[in-house]
Amino acid sequence: MGHARALIVDDEADIRELLGITLERMNIDVSAAPDLATATRLLRTEDFQLCLTDMNLPDGNGLTLVEWIQSNRPHLPVAVITAHGNVESAVRALKLGAFDFISKPLDLAALRKLISATLKLAEQPDITVSQPENRLLGRSSAMNTLREMIDKVARSQAPVHIYGESGTGKELVAHLIHDTSARRDAPFVPVNCGAIPGELMESELFGHKKGSFTGAVADKQGLIQSAEGGTLFLDEIADLPLHMQVKLLRVIQQKTVRPVGESREFPVDVRILSATHKHLGNMVNAGTFREDLYYRVNVIEMRVPPLRERGDDIGELVASILKRQSKQLGQILSISPEALNALKQYHFPGNVRELENILERAATLCSQHRIELGDLQLRPNTTHAVESAAVTAHADMNPAAPQIGEKLGDALEDIERDAILKALTQTRFNKTKAAALLGMSFRSLRYRIKKLGLE
Predict the structure, then answer these.
(1) The domain 383-451 is classified under which CATH number: 1.10.1060, 1.10.10, 3.40.50, 2.60.40?
(2) Domain boundaries defined on the chain
(3) In angstroms, rounded to a whole number, what is the distance separating the alpha carbons of residues 341 and 153?
């Protein structure tokens, strides 16, 4: 196989020369264009594995070229060179489909990393979420749309914000984006922002230097640096305190991190994925989430549909969950038509996580390894739960209705408190087993127990 080929588009001869030398030292053949017209002519007639373009060109701009490539050469990764500090241009380029961006003055080490990642993307075989090892169950139109979106964003380095109700599988979506991207061989590091105590958050995310505070007996690498070369998934990003939002914004814009007690900043190469079940736009309006950070993490937005919008997928999900539980129990589990039909009619306020918990409980209660309607113990007030969810959504969008939202928040806390107490009782207060039963991490359960005053 011959060398990879790259197209450099820049009107400054010295920049073209610098980029050309850098790429040629990486065994990449280079063609150059001083303007948009020359670039599009070369792209029409020749094959390239990479395109680097400046933002400002004599007869147009880099964004125009990014759009042209997306329409005419959609599998060609393109990175843009932006002026230092011009975050708006970088964000616009990523939204239009650019793979990544690099700022002037050029950092050659960062440039080489970007080029290596871009070429890895161009060389990899098409890996999609439809393959067996990357299962995202369900054939509903909502899930087909989600799969297509995952495949698309996996070919980018742009930050992605995933939103959806609790229990819909936002972390699974983030993992699939990572697993089908050029970063798949590097770490995927999930961080639950709501489960880290505020006083430990900076040290956990950024790391610390020995002696920087009482108890810092050794240097510690933070979670951000542990994701080097890979993906950092910030779950429940809405729970980040404002002072940490400022520090995260700097990581995204400067691509550097400074551990607690350290005087230097260290370069870091991570892709940021985030998720929350809250409405970040409303939080920006309320002043509890920074607007500048919102636009940086929300370059691409993805919605994970709730289970009640995926009625056609219930049968496939039930079959998959029962197959997994059968393997764990060493007994083949089945479900009666009446029980399955009841699940198809149920609205699942807790989404896929609730479905898993219902079937796990039913598998324990059922006779002859067959789940009947009575074993499901579905909540009777399904309609009320759906109406309440609609009221919550309306209250989210309408700050003038705080009383309804507050009452509903109290009701939801009561439901959550009851579910946690039942799980603890069922597992004889073994928190590890209770967390597994509830479909959450041990750390999250501990946090919820403390928050709800159940200690």
Answers:
(1) 1.10.10
(2) 4-123, 138-303, 307-378, 383-451
(3) 36
Place of tokens 């009701």: 411
pLDDT digits (tens, 9 = 90+) for 91-114: 888 888 888 888 888 888 888 888
Q: How far apart are CA 405 and CA 425, in angstroms?
A: 30
pLDDT in tens, 187-223: 999 999 988 888 888 889 998 888 777 777 788 888 9
- Per-residue confidence band for 408, with pLDDT thresholds at 50, 70 and 90: low
Distance CA 258, CA 254 (A): 11
> In the Cβ-directed half-sphere of 106, how many Cα atoms lie within 13 Å?
19
pLDDT of residue 419: 83
CATH of domain 4-123: 3.40.50.2300
Q: What's the number of CA atoms in the CB half-sphere (13 Å) around residue 427?
A: 16
Q: Which residues contact 455 (CB under 8 A, 6 or more apart)?
A: 449
Q: So what CATH class is 138-303?
A: alpha beta
Whole-number Å distance between alpha carbons of 50 and 33: 14
Domain 4-123 and domain 383-451, same fold? Reply is no
Domain 307-378 CATH class label: mainly alpha
The model carries a pTM of 0.71
Can you point out the beta strands (E) in 37-129? 50-54, 56-57, 60-61, 78-82, 100-103
